[in-house]
Amino acid sequence: SDIRNQRSKSPAESPAPIFVGVATFAMQRTIVFLALAAAATASQVTPVQKVVDMMEKMVEKGKSEAEAEKSQFAVYVKFCENTTVEKRRAIEEATERIDLLTANIDKASSDIDQLTKEIGEADAIIDSTSAEKANATSVREAEAADYAVALKDYTDSIN
Hints:
- The structure is a single chain.
- The chain is an all-alpha fold.
- It is 92% helix and 0% strand.
- It has 3 helices and no strands.
- The protein has helices spanning 2-8, 17-43, 47-158.
């Protein structure tokens, strides 16, 4: 009512006509702000709705991460299977190679034993042959000496 009384008075009678216009403008602005705020709160999401939205987003994110992890795990499983196959094959090949080398070592050891025996027999033959040669040489030398003596006798008797 004071505002109405001030408006009805003439500008000369009013002590502060400028402040009345500013106050009216401020009130209008406040009313518009409250109306906008009321409209905004009517269209705004409630805290429960926000939580529900956040949980739905979390579920979607969880599903996408689970799918990504599932595909990554599938790749890992495939890697493990391939590696296992390769390692088993490498182990089998190495085992076969070990068996082959062990057989070669056993054969070489057997050959060493056989050849050592044969070398011993050959050495025995060489020793006996050398002894026979020495005996034969001494016999031949004795016979050559006897022949030389007989030849000298014959040659002396003919001359």
